[in-house]
């Protein structure tokens, strides 16, 4: 799909919600006097068979989680690999044994999306999610209504760890995805899985609203139970000082620093959950004091050496590789995430320790002392940064750009100089967060050649 592509077939609301007879709350959300200028229509499209599949998925993988222990593999893995080898064209000429299976990459999916579609997938149910390409070339991810709706029981299983549940009612707003961007799709929708509860995606950009205070008034009026978004969007929301009482905030897409987490928790008086997910397979793990705790037993996790077909021994740090999922349009077998960590099994639950998104980058002091970007992330974590980019030039100068309405460049300099042992030149710039940001994920880069 091109960047300007829009849906080619316009569905009716009845087609978007075949099991929901009463759509009055949807119309209320759309037609409210404070409502934004919604630019998209969305629905889960779940029929009775599909809804049953989502509930079966919840019972099997979300209600009682059974993972695997060190040296073991999940009980479902052999059947899954056999199914992939039999029905998925991309895997049909490959060895059906996991230990003999090579890894695959985002580039494989980008080049050959059709080859990852199982012969058993119903093409009439095909949906396409178009990524922005902020972490690489643009990518179309294929999925179906069941895969999409399974996001909800996955999130419910996380919320359960915080003694939080989502109320199921056709007259309540269950979830609001908060954005603070120049442009994005926005809509009001309902969840068949949640008995018709409202689902919102809104953009805080003032141009999306009729009056300056409408965003604040609209959110306060419908008071979503769960807020989802990235740290920048949440900090932009905080600037509006809304009187909301969410049960939890679920942050994803960008690294959530401890400083930002504490600030959000202090204001909203609820847990702020740092979720690790990917478009290719959705939710994977969430942050705890020990590390990122795995969410889904249907994803088998391994650690591989970067750029090598070598599985690393238990406990060693490397690239996270994933097998599994419930998407017949994109079954994954040893998919390289591009993210790095080490794996630890604790009481039967996998944890991703020292998880860092994308390639690890080594920085250098003037005296050529190596500085790991994990140490930088840990040092900056106490500051209320919604995101940042850090680059080292060939001359070893550190160029830092952060996004925050509370943090100062002086605080950044103080932290980084300690990490770099006062042996570095640093240029630090802090940009204010607004309701229409055009920023990407936190990123480390360097012009220096590292081994």
Give a structural overview.
This protein has 13 helices and 20 strands. By secondary structure, the protein is α/β, with parallel strands linked by helices. It folds into two domains: 13-355, ANL, N-terminal domain (Rossmann fold, 3-Layer(aba) Sandwich), CATH 3.40.50; 362-446, ANL, C-terminal domain (GMP Synthetase, Chain A, domain 3). The strands form four sheets. It has a twelve-stranded mixed sheet with strand order 4-5-3-6-7-8-9-10-14-13-12-11, sandwiched between helices. A four-stranded mixed sheet has the order 19-18-17-20, covered by helices on one side. Strands 1-2 form a two-stranded antiparallel ribbon. Strand 15 and strand 16 form a beta hairpin. Helix 12 (373-380) packs across helix 13. The radius of gyration is 22 Å and the shape is globular.
Characteristic key phrases:
alpha/beta, four-stranded mixed sheet, Rossmann fold, disordered N terminus, 20 strands, single chain, 451 residues, 2 domains, GMP Synthetase, Chain A, domain 3
Which percent bin holds the helix content?
A: 10-25%
Oligomer: single chain
Structural class: alpha/beta
CATH class category of the largest domain:
Alpha Beta
Spans of 5+ residues with little confidence (pLDDT < 50)? 1-6, 132-136
Q: Biggest sheet: strands side by side, in what order? A: 4-5-3-6-7-8-9-10-14-13-12-11
Summarize the model shown:
The chain is of the alpha/beta class and 451 residues long. 25% of the residues lie in helices and 26% in strands. The chain has two domains: 13-355, ANL, N-terminal domain (Rossmann fold, 3-Layer(aba) Sandwich); 362-446, GMP Synthetase, Chain A, domain 3, CATH 3.30.300.
């Amino acid at each position: 799909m091109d960047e300007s592509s829009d849906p080619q077939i316009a569905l009716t609301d009845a087609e978007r919600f075949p099991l929901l007879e009463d759509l009055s709350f949807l119309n209320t959300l759309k037609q409210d006097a404070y409502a934004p200028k919604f630019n998209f229509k969305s629905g889960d499209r779940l029929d009775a068979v599909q809804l049953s599949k989502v509930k079966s998925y919840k019972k099997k993988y979300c209600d009682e989680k059974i993972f695997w222990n060190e040296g073991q593999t999940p009980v479902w893995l052999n059947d899954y690999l056999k199914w992939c080898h039999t029905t998925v064209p991309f895997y049909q000429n490959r060895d059906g044994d996991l230990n003999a299976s090579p890894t695959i990459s985002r580039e494989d999916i980008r080049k050959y999306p059709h080859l990852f579609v199982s012969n058993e997938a119903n093409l009439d149910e095909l949906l396409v999610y178009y990524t922005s390409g902020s972490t690489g070339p643009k990518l179309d991810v294929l999925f179906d209504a069941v895969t999409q709706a399974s996001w909800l029981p996955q999130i419910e299983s996380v919320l359960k760890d915080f003694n939080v549940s989502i109320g199921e009612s056709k007259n309540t707003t269950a979830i609001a995805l908060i954005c603070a961007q120049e442009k994005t799709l926005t809509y009001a929708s309902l969840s068949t899985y949640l008995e018709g509860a409202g689902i919102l995606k809104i953009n805080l950009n003032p141009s999306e609203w009729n009056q300056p205070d409408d965003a604040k008034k609209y959110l306060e009026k419908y008071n979503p139970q769960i807020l989802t978004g990235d740290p920048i969007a949440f900090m932009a929301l905080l600037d509006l000082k809304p009187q909301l009482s969410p049960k939890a905030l679920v942050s994803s897409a960008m690294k959530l620093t401890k400083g930002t987490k504490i600030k959000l928790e202090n204001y909203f008086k609820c847990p702020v959950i740092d979720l690790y997910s990917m478009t290719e397979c959705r939710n994977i793990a969430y942050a705890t004091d020990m590390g990122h705790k795995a969410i889904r037993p249907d994803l088998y996790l391994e650690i591989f050496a970067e750029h090598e077909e070598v599985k690393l021994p238990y406990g060693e740090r490397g690239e996270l590789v994933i097998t599994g999922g419930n998407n017949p349009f994109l079954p994954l077998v040893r998919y390289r995430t591009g993210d790095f960590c080490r794996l630890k099994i604790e009481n039967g639950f996998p944890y991703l320790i020292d998880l860092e998104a994308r390639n690890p980058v080594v920085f250098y002091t003037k005296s050529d002392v190596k500085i790991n970007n994990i140490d930088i992330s840990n040092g900056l974590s106490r500051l209320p940064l919604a995101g940042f980019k850090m680059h080292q030039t060939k001359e070893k100068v550190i160029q830092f750009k952060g996004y925050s309405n509370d943090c100062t460049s002086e605080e950044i300099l103080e932290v980084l100089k300690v990490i770099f042992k006062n042996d570095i030149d640093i240029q630090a710039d802090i940009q204010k967060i607004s309701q229409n940001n055009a920023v990407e994920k936190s990123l480390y880069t360097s012009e220096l050649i590292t081994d």
